[in-house]
Amino acid sequence: MFGSCSKHVFKLEQEEYLKEEIEWKLIDFYDNQPCIDLIETKLGILDLLDEECRMPKGTDSSWAEKLYSKCTKWKHFAKPRFGTTAFLIHHFADNVTYQSNGFLEKNRDTVMEDQINVLKNGQVGSQFRDSLNMLMGTLNATTPHYVRCIKPNDEKQAFEYNPMRAVQQLRACGVLETIRISAAGFPSRWTYSDFFHRYRVLCKYKDIMRNNMKATCDRILGNIIKENDKYQFGKTKIFFRAGQVAYLEKLRADKLKQCCIIIQKQIRMFICRKRYLRMLQSIKSIQRYARGFLARRRVYHMRQKRAATTIQRHVRGWLKRIQFTRTRRCIQGVQAHARGMLARRRYKAMLYNHKVNISK
């Protein structure tokens, strides 16, 4: 099973490399065909078993002796250290010891004559052969995908996982070897257009050549992967070694993250700037109204002060005029009485002097 699986994977890889003209080295893979030949070829285990069943006095132990004498030339066959009824086969997964007891009895199970007649007269075998040919044609025409069922533990208990047992199953199914074969070549491949659209973020605008995707991809990879043996260019695809696509995906994720951060930064700056301008406009409006209110109040107080000053000036002028008028009137009254008194005194003196002169 594993030999055909590995061979099929390797054959598909080889055809792809040849079609794309990729330089590659021959990959060694485990071929299970010698083990199959040991079991199925002429003078193999099953052939010797049929021969022993045809012998009148054939026994399991005599069949084991024949295996020891005939099959020692095969490197996949071995005789155990102890016992004369067991034999050892080196399978791909591990060495398996088989006990010969009961093999002849099982192999001698006869088929009823009616069943033989049905098989001879029916079309069962041809239908099976046609179905098998159709299945093989379908498998050869499609891309293989393998599904392996792994038992987490031999007891089939829930929530129990035996890692050693799981690894044994993976190795026995050939999954690890198939992965090794795939990883030894170029397991990842992209067409030039798909690669460009996927990893366009990793190049600059000046490196893009729309009419030559291969050159564009070469520029992208030349700036990122410095080891040329990690990838190769085919006619229509780019082939990558194991791990390179994961590295490119990490760079792409980092670049997209950086772009997202830049976009977020710009959006946040725009939102904060818009909020700031709105707040600034609101503050300016509040300041304008506040300054207007304060200016109007200041003007109102200035007008009140000016009016009060004017009223005070007029009141003080009126009071001063009244005080001045009263003072002037008093002074004029005093002056009038004083001048009258002095005039009367002068008149009396003149009259007295005139009388004196007349009397002389």
Mean pLDDT: 82
Structural class: mainly alpha
Share of β-strand residues: 5-15%
Question: How do the SSEs run, as a string of H and E?
Answer: HHHHEEEHHHHHEHHEEH
What is the terminal-to-terminal distance?
A: 190 Å
Range of helix content? 55-70%
Overall 3D form: rod-shaped
Descriptive account of the structure:
By secondary structure, the chain is mainly alpha-helical. Helix content is 66%, strand content 6%. It is built from 12 helices and 6 strands. It has a 3-stranded antiparallel beta sheet with strand order 1-2-3. A 3-stranded antiparallel beta sheet has the order 4-6-5. A hairpin with a 3-residue loop joins strand 5 and strand 6. Helix 1 runs parallel beside helix 9, helix 3 crosses helix 4 and helix 10 packs across helix 11. The radius of gyration is 60 Å and the shape is rod-shaped. 9% of the residues are buried. The mean pLDDT is 82.
